[in-house]
Amino acid sequence: MDDAFIKNMGLRIFERRKQLNLTQDDIASRTGLALQTISMAELGKTSLRAENILRICMVLDVSADYLLTGDLPDERYKVLNKKVAKLTEAQYRELLNIVHSFLVVCGIDDE
User: Smallest Cα–Cα separation from 43: which of 14, 72, 75?
Assistant: First the structure.
């Protein structure tokens, strides 16, 4: 991986950890990762495996997109995702039908 990519991801981990008033030890214990892994990641000296990135994302309450690229999802999508996540599979399929119909009426459905 690109050194700048790894350093930028490490910086985002560090900044978010500080925003949450967490220590590296807090992150390590909550993710099950070694303290040295967290420290080296924050310093941009090591790349992380995908499953470890996901563990860190869960503890820091950020998306993998943010950690990897710095892109923040639109807050509207975040709220919608939380609500949709509570639906059963049948309810989700029905919601998709409703959204599709709505988009057709609005003339913006591209399927």
Answer: 14
Residuewise pLDDT in 10s, the chain (111 residues): 678 999 999 999 999 999 999 999 999 999 999 999 999 999 999 999 999 999 999 999 888 988 999 887 676 677 788 888 888 999 999 999 998 888 888 888 665
Listed residue (82, 51, 79) closest to 64, CA to CA: 51
Q: Is 36 inside a domain boundary?
A: yes
Within 8 A by CB and 6+ apart from 44, the residues are 3, 6, 7, 8, 9, 10, 11
Residue whose pair of structure tokens reads 């992150």 in the numeric block = 27
Q: How many domains does the chain have?
A: 2
Taking the C-alpha atoms of residue 53 and residue 48, their distance in angstroms, rounded to an integer, is 6
Residue 41 CB-density burial (10 A; 0-12 exposed, 13-18 middle, 19+ buried) = buried
One domain, residues 63 and 15? yes
pTM of the predicted protein model = 0.66
